Amino acid sequence: MAMDSETENGRLEHKNHKNPIQHSRLRCVIFVFVFAMAFSKAVAYDPLDPNGNITIKWDIVSWTPDGYVAMVTMNNYQMYRHIMSPGWTLGWSWAKKEVIWSIVGAQATEQGDCSKFKGNIPHCCKKTPSIVDLLPGVPYNQQIQNCCKGGILSSFGQDPSGAVSSLQVSVGLAGTTNKTVKLPLNFTLAGPGPGYTCGPAKNVPATVFFTPDHRRKTQALMTWNVTCSYSQFLARRNPSCCVSLSSFYNDTITSCPTCSCGCQNKNNCVESDSKLLSLAGVNTPRKDNAPLLQCTRHMCPIRVHWHVKLNYKDYWRVKIAITNFNYRLNYTQWTLVVQHPNLNNVTQVFSFDYKPLLPYQSINDTGMFYGMKYYNDLLMEAGPSGNVQSEVLMQKDQNTFSFKKGWAFPRKVYFNGDECMLPPPDSYPFLPSSARSTGRSNVAVFTASMFVWAVMVLFW
């Protein structure tokens, strides 16, 4: 008995010794899983725009006694994400002790300490300059092609001609040959807030330029590229928009989930009938871009409503409404991207412009909606004019079309390049017939279960 007791105690001790190891392994597994999830969110990859990025090209076009003159060009290759007011801010770190003698088409936000210069004073002496675009209407001698748009950079899918911005910079105290020039480091891009991550500068084949008559071409003395990618996870903690749903075949309106965009602004929101909104200056944007939101359950600046409106024999019709709940911000050149399987048969779009997106050439289920120029491409601040709407007519494909199981509602929705919060699928408006069939199936399952239980009781 004593040996049995000792053996049992040994087993218990061995079991207790194993538990810390098992717990440690479990903690490691959980840590790796959480890290992988966080890293996957931070990766700047958009499945609906896999090749989207902003490329900064730096072309040295001439040498100077102590440096060079370069053309810096920003190309936005993102199909539906643009940079809106107050515009982009470009930054980097100099590899040596370079200074900026002058800039055309842009300016540095700070001059820095230039006290060691006795004659000409440089435009910027900071080790890490921050460059912003000039505003429209500056004198011609300060302009260059594709400059002076207040930092606004259109998306490539919406306006390719407006998706480029340029500036000319004269750099001093730098190398004067291809072998002595050092590439700048740590490029940053704010557009206008966080979200963009830039890779290192890389030497690429020199850019070729054509004269206006296209009879002669010249070549940059040296060229390098920097690629910047966007991550919504890095831009903000919470989504910036949400989606609500409704249909003609069900009285239920599926609202945006509560606190879809976080409720940190819940105490600073304003009711739509508040007298505060009549005060002068309340709609003026603030330097920190702090919003003034209308009080709602979802607390989102933007709500997208998708309404299944009509059903014809060969077509069906959807109404889309976008509402702005921010009293301090107008959305210029807004874009709305929707993923839905029937967008491969769009027949007509009313009041919006539409362009199919083909991130994967064999699948045509994603499209971009945007406002018509000078008509509704500006989504006004919250209030009576703070919404835009359109209707979409789609042809039915009898092999795939259905109103069952939420098929008529979008799979993904993006506003201004950020993915919106969708309601949970079990809250979608459903067909009355599907509810009855579900009820019958539940009764059938219950009856079958009772039958099996009775058989087991009888033959136990």
Automatic annotation (TrEMBL):
Specify the COBRA C-terminal domain's residue ranges.
Answer: 240-429
Q: Name one Pfam family in it.
A: COB_C
GO biological process terms, alphabetically, are: cellulose microfibril organization; plant-type cell wall cellulose biosynthetic process
Q: Does the keyword Cytoplasm apply?
A: no
One cellular component term (GO) for this entry is: plasma membrane
**What does the UniProt keyword field contain?**
Glycoprotein, Signal
List the InterPro entries: COB_C (IPR056900), COBRA_pln (IPR006918)
The family classification in the record reads: Belongs to the COBRA family.
Please give the name of this protein: COBRA-like protein
What species was this sequence derived from? Acorus gramineus (Dwarf sweet flag)
